[in-house]
UniProtKB/TrEMBL annotation:
Segments forming domain Peptidase M1 alanyl aminopeptidase Ig-like fold: 338-440
Cofactor requirement: Zn(2+)
Known catalytic reactions: Release of an N-terminal amino acid, Xaa-|-Yaa- from a peptide, amide or arylamide. Xaa is preferably Ala, but may be most amino acids including Pro (slow action). When a terminal hydrophobic residue is followed by a prolyl residue, the two may be released as an intact Xaa-Pro dipeptide
Lineage of source species: Bacteria, Pseudomonadati, Thermodesulfobacteriota, Desulfobacteria, Desulfobacterales
Homology family: Belongs to the peptidase M1 family.
Domain called Peptidase M1 alanyl aminopeptidase C-terminal: residue spans: 446-653
Species this chain originates from: Candidatus Magnetoglobus multicellularis str. Araruama
Protein name, UniProt field: Aminopeptidase N
Residue intervals of the Peptidase M1 membrane alanine aminopeptidase domain: 119-330
Residue ranges constituting the Aminopeptidase N-like N-terminal domain according to the UniProt record: 8-80
UniProt-listed SUPFAM superfamilies: Leukotriene A4 hydrolase N-terminal domain, Metalloproteases ('zincins'), catalytic domain
Amino acid sequence: MGLYVSNDIYCTQCEAEGFRKITYFLDRPDVMSPYTCTIAADQKKYPVLLSNGNFIQSEPLDNGRHCVKWDDPIPKPSYLFAMVAGDLESIEETITTKSNKKVALRIYAEKDNINHCQFAMKSLIKAIQWDETRFDREYDLDTYMIVAINDFNAGAMENKGLNIFNAKSILADPDTAADSDYATIQRVIAHEYLHNWTGNRITIKNWFQLCLKEGLTVFRDQLFAEDMVVNKVPRRIQDVQKLRMHQFSEDSGPNAHPVRPEQYIEMSNFYTKTVYDKGAAVIRMLYTLLGDLFFKGMMKYFEQYDGKAVTVEDFLSVMENAAEMNLDQFKLWYTQAGTPLVIVERKYIADKQIFELTFKQICPPTPGQTKKHPMVIPVDIALLDSKGQHIPVQIMNESDPVKHRILKITESEQTFQFTNVPENPVPSVFRNFSACVKVSVDYSFDERLFLMTHDSDDFNRWDQSRQIYLDCLYQMIQAYQKNCALNVPQEMIEALNVILKKSLTNKTLLTKLIAIPSDIEIAHYCAEKSMLINPDAIFFVRQYMKETIASHFSEIFMALYNKSNTHTAYAFTPPEVARRRVKNMALNFLVSLKTPKTKSLAFKQFKNADNMTDIYAALRSLSHVDHDSFQKACDIFFFRYRKNPLVINKWFS
């Protein structure tokens, strides 16, 4: 884009090749330069003139004009240049870094929006403090500025010292933003700030290395988001759901490409789920393999390459030296496209108390890559006995049994033998989604229920709950299409009963375990099974599943709702977010019963709620069960928020 104007606000978007549209320049990411920028404009029309770096001076000019001078002493590539000119207002805070340096933090927005920027400011402060604590990174300029613009043509941009955001990624207040919006704002602000060291001070040698700056920064913002809550697993689940739904689909389609593509016609097409999200998953696998040595490598990376433009190889070489581990084979994650499938087989030799796990990896062909080499795949495993207790994991000819351990798969087929296993265990594999692969394990239905209720790894508990749901829904869709009776297995109902009682202390995890997969998830699963997607069947069967569960647990859901339906003032804190999630999960199930009492409950919440999370949850609950109540609620919602375009987007959805 370069420099453009919208609604009388001038702003820039220079990544990837926009700076050349402003002026002649060696517009490549490896050309790093300090910048001094002087902006002159009509003072009445454009009272605020911003650019990268530190403020130097401002002075009046003739004919009602003025100019402002900015200096950025830290060399940066041209894609990080930014300027903004407009009639904006601001809020400001000052923080002190760990070296006792004062930094002014400012957020600019249009007059109607400035009162909705306080949460963004708090999020920025948390991100700065987190990076100092977790990665020992300190901010380097005197000022850090964010500008929120309604018509910014990208979601957000990490320009050095002057981030520019679309307003939807900044503005929040309880009446117009749901908990999910708050979480997104917090994370996007962190992402752009964290680029200061992974992208800005250490940039990339060429655009083929985009996966390094974006994958590494997405991984860091994932860690930040996990650290902002008490229980990290629900955030991890959210990231994996996103990866599976969007990136796995990209990997299996005609546009499949490596994390580091080898060619491009248009650079803007590089900004894909594979480059960003799979790029982050690859970094996390490296973290899983290296453990604490990963952070040792990061410190060396910051020290060795500060102020330089680097490649994936430069990053991996630092990690190799820090961990004393050869990563040549690991580099295949950057050059081979597609999602590997890992098939897990098992064998128990009772008389020798030996348990064997065999892993077979299949790397499917993708456009331009018909033959693949075996990848390095970290597998976090544990062995559970019949009571759900851990059997110590001890590999043959190795000492020191442990509760769980990381296996490193490097071959097309690889077998591990575990000794001193007193009974045939249920293996818990790929705990916490230790590798971005598809997994096939020959679990029985009962074993999946067992892991769902007993596994100590909460991610795997959730993963098994999804698989059970999807298997049952798939079978019910088959029955529906044959005009056969629908049936929800009694064993599943009993497992949900265990979960509802067992997980009450972890409210956020409870909502994840109980939630029925979305229509889109079910459609993806049907497609994987080579079933022709039938939207009507998916909708009907999913509703039937919800109504059946609600009928069995109506008293429990009502008790959960009443207990969680407190009238405390809105706060975006982990306990309060969890409370609202449980309440609205319970409401959603209850309303599916379509009784006058439950429909009235939802409409009452819609009318009386003091926050968008509860308002929107009640509106969505009514959407499938009562046309009259839903239409009335929709009309009220539209009239109330008709002048707020960000909220009206929710009305459209």
